[in-house]
Every structure is written in structure tokens, then in C-alpha cells.
Specification:
The complex is a heterodimer of chains A (188) and B (106). By secondary structure, chain A is an all-alpha fold. Chain A is built from eight helices and no strands. Chain B has 106 residues and is mainly α. Classes of the chains: A mainly alpha (188), B mainly alpha (106).
Chain lengths: 188, 106
Amino acid sequence: MTEQELIIGLKNGKDDAFKELVESRQTLVFNTILGFLQSQEDAEDVTQDVFIKIYESIGQFKGESALSTWVYRVAVTSALEFLRRKKRKKRFGFMMPIFGEENEQHLELPDFNHPGVALDKREMASILFKAIKDLPENQQIAFILNKVEGLSYQEVAEVMKTSLSAVESLLHRAKTNLKEILKNFNNL
Amino acid sequence: MSNKFNTEQIINSLDGIQRAEPAPFFYTRLRGKMAKEEAGSIMHLFKLITSPAFSLAIACFFVVVNGYFLMNNINDDTIIDENNQAVAAEYVQLPENPYVTPTENP
């Protein structure tokens, strides 16, 4: 099925087109989201939500970019929304006992080990993933898409709807900030 | 946190990373979630319709609509009544045979 046929099939609500979309893009979506959320369970959940969103809003896809670029955008937006929601919950978590919602436990997640990292680099990658969380949102997006998902600078620029030079600058600043964050980690 | 690695090494630790894949049968689980959500939204609609607040809102709506039409009917009746009175007054003033003009009478 060509991309055009796939898009037409999706717009017509064809099940086989949706199945093809999921099977051909599930790894792309899951891996991107995992880079942001750093939890396999949450990433699986949000990946499902991304495909439901795509299924419901394919009519809004105008074809101005490649389908994969649009899928990346939906994935990144959904991951960031999830993180914002989680932060909000954490911030107002102290109010839960007042309203009687004491069942939900807020435990800090253990260090994240990405399953795609070679065994000898796991410890270092785990430290790096912890540091990535402290980056500003835009730098985080550029860094994850480039380093975790392996997109080129041009592809990152298309997903972020920005210029190539802006992506280069974001990645440069991300690396500088990561060095600072990691230095602080070492001082702890 | 970790003095045994230098920062450059850590930053480059993602070089050569492989993509992570979701657990097998992802599509089946996704379809299951979609079906569950669809059923959930139907149940939500059913719950909304059967809720006392919704019934009360519908009842209020009908009372307001009825009141509006009732008020309009009263006003219409007044206009019709006025029209009837005007026609009656005109009829009283007419000669015995309205089809015969007064000039035709001898």
C-alpha cells in the first residue's frame, strides 16, 4: 500500500489501512514516547492513545508533510501532554489526602534503562536519561528525536516545524546544558 | 552521582542505540482499548440521560417552552378578538343587502 493509498484508506475509515498504519509505525511512536516518559508501561499506554487520536483526527491531516512527520508530531505532543499532566498531579498531590484520595501512591520511578542501549553503556545512558528530564522542552524534543529516534537534523526540523539552523542551535544548547547538569550530578 | 564517567562519555552513550519496540500483539491490545472506550462513551451517555439532573433539566425545558407558547397564544387570542369586534362593528353599519349600493335604491 503506498502512502497515498494508506491516507485515503484511513480517511475512509478502512480497518486494513489502520492496521497497516499501526504495524508500520508502532515502533516509531513507542520509541519516541519512551524517550520522553522513560517508563515502558506509560509509553505503551500513550502509544495506544496516539493511534486512537490519529484514527479520530486523520481528517485534519492536510498532506502538507509526510504522514510519518505528522505521526511524530502527534506522538511528541501526546508525550509532553502526559508529562505536564503528571507534573500537575505531583504538584497538587499534597491536596489529595484533604479530599480523601489517599489510595494513589506517588512513588519515584527507578532509574530508566532503555532496552535498545548496549549493555556496557546502560549505566551511562541511565544517567543521561535522568539529565534529559531537566532540559527545557524544545531542547528535549530535538535531543530525543535526534539521539534516541535517530532522525536527521532536517527531519527534526520538519517535525518541529522550524529551520535547520534552529535545530542545530537547540542541539548545541542541549549538549551544553546536559554537561552542566551532569557536572552537578557528579558533585552530589 | 557518578564520578567514574566523564560527561562526554555519558552524552555519547546513546550512540548506536536500537529502537525499543512495544510488547507483542500491540494492535490487538489497541483494538481492545478502542472497543472499551466506545462502550464506555455509550455507558457515559446512558448514565447522563438517566441522571436526575438531566431529567430535571428536560422537565424545566418543557415547562419554559410550554409557557412561551401559552403566552404567545394569549396574545394571538387578543388580536383575533379585536379583529372579530371590528368586523362585527362594520357588519352592523352595513345596509340590509350589502350587495346593493345605496345609489341603486329608488
